[in-house]
Amino acid sequence: MKNLFRLNLAFIGFPVLLCLMSVIDGEFLFWGMLSTILTGLFQLVIGFGMLKDEPKDKDLQRYAFLVLLFFCGWITSAFLETINRIMDYIYVLPPLLAAYLTYIIYKKRNL
């Protein structure tokens, strides 16, 4: 679990580092934002893999529910223009999900 925690921090830190480097060259911001897709994919696989191993864990169940809520809101707002207010808040959820999964992994690492 310690290695998973370190790998997760690397996946989170890499986009942040690239975005910070955009002070030097603005193109780094593009690559930083693009690399967040890989971070999200990694966290989805890890989160649902951990849920498969421990299906009764309440934190992982909550994480899966929030991930599904995010994708349902994203898909719904893409098809229905009347729900534009959802799109105002939909970008806040991925960083919160990343932080929450990091917290879950950290908590399991210390058990």
Helical content (DSSP H or I, runs of 4+) = over 70%
* SS-derived structural category: mainly alpha
Tell me the strand percentage band: under 5%
Q: Please outline the major beta sheet.
A: none
Mean pLDDT: 89
What integer value in Å does the Rg equal?
Answer: 16 Å
**CA(first)-CA(last) distance:** 10 Å
Topology pattern, helix = H, strand = E: HHHHH
In total, the number of strands is 0
Low-confidence stretches: none
Tell me the number of helical segments per DSSP (H or I, 4 or more residues long). Answer: 5
Descriptive report:
By secondary structure, the protein is an all-alpha fold. The chain has five helices and no strands. The protein has helices at 2-20, 27-53, 58-79, 84-89, 93-109. The longest helix is centred in the middle third of the chain and has 27 residues, at 27-53. The radius of gyration is 16 Å and the shape is flat.
List keywords for this structure.
mainly alpha, 111 residues
What's the SSE blueprint?
Elements: H1 2-20, H2 27-53, H3 58-79, H4 84-89, H5 93-109
Helix pairs in contact: 1-2, 1-5, 2-3, 3-5
Give a short synopsis of this structure:
The protein has helices at 2-20, 27-53, 58-79, 84-89, 93-109.
